[in-house]
Amino acid sequence: xxxxxxxxxxxxxxxxxxxxxxxxxxxxxxxxxxxxxxxxxxxxxxxxxxxxxxxxxxxxxxxxxxxxxxxxxxxxxxxxxxxxxxxxxxxxxxxxxxxxxxxxxxxxxxxxxxxxxxxxxxxxxxxxxxxxxxxxxxxxxxxxxxxxxxxxxxxxxxxxxxxxxxxxxxxxxxxxxxxxxxxxxxxxxxxxxxxxxxxxxxxxxxxxxxxxxxxxxxxxxxxxxxxxxxxxxxxxxxxxxxxxxxxxxxxxxxxxxxxxxxxxxxxxxxxxxxxxxxxxxxxxxxxxxxx
Length: 291
Ligand code: ATR
What we know:
Elements: E1 7-13, H1 21-31, E2 36-42, H2 48-57, E3 62-65, E4 79-80, H3 82-87, E5 92-95, E6 100-103, H4 106-116, E7 125-129, H5 133-144, E8 149-154, H6 157-171, E9 176-180, E10 192-196, H7 214-217, E11 220-225, H8 234-241, E12 245-247, H9 250-265, H10 271-284
Parallel strand pairs: 1-2, 1-3, 4-6, 7-8, 7-10, 8-9, 10-11, 11-12
Antiparallel strand pairs: 3-5, 5-6
Helix pairs in contact: 1-9, 1-10, 4-5, 4-9, 5-6, 9-10
The chain binds 2'-monophosphoadenosine-5'-diphosphate.
């Protein structure tokens, strides 16, 4: 019930119409009996600074930030967490006395999702597909969590080189190796964890994978696609066809939300509550997991 004590959180981005975040946060608030509502705010390019100022003036408790503002929002914050600073992207704002402090919950969200699926990063040889914003966060995760070698494959080699140099230097270890996507045949003969962080295969363009050669997939023991729409991507299908385990990105979405919720409310969300929210998310998206 919304009343005089209700606190507001929300999402700023453009577009925001298709977001699943209200489902995550409003369900959590319901389950944990917090007097909180979460709403999407579509913010026009050029209106970002005013939106942050206005959110503070309106006493909003916190915000999520999505495309295209994850980096652009940084100059308007009153502080930034170390990890978000390193990654160069912020997806969660937490109110403090002077304004909003920026955090990145995408990376820890992916880590929590991988842990909950029993996927190891420590000591693994990893293929990371893509060098955009999402891939950068994954590259940091792999570097910070002790991956052995990470082959960063991207269509444009230059972008892969830039991301690899930056992550290696900020993480303080040389473990990211940039490669052109077209050179995937030169990967060493090993068994890999592969993380798909390009936009290829995303709805409605569901019949494509960034690499479609079956031979490539025979070396992948586990494939993790950051895409969750569709919930069974072409990449995942190719991994499974060659005997590997494959996962979509909906749990990452869940946990980035759970971690943001924890930051705003100073609580720790019980795992069974998070998994109940996950079931509701899957239902809303029409996902039926074939186990
Ligand atoms: P995000 O923030 O979601 O990571 P992004 O920064 O636009 O989005 O990055 C998109 C990624 O998908 C990039 O790695 C891009 O490759 P380039 O850097 O070469 O553009 C990759 N990508 C998009 N379309 C692609 C395609 N048709 N083939 C191969 N890679 C593609």
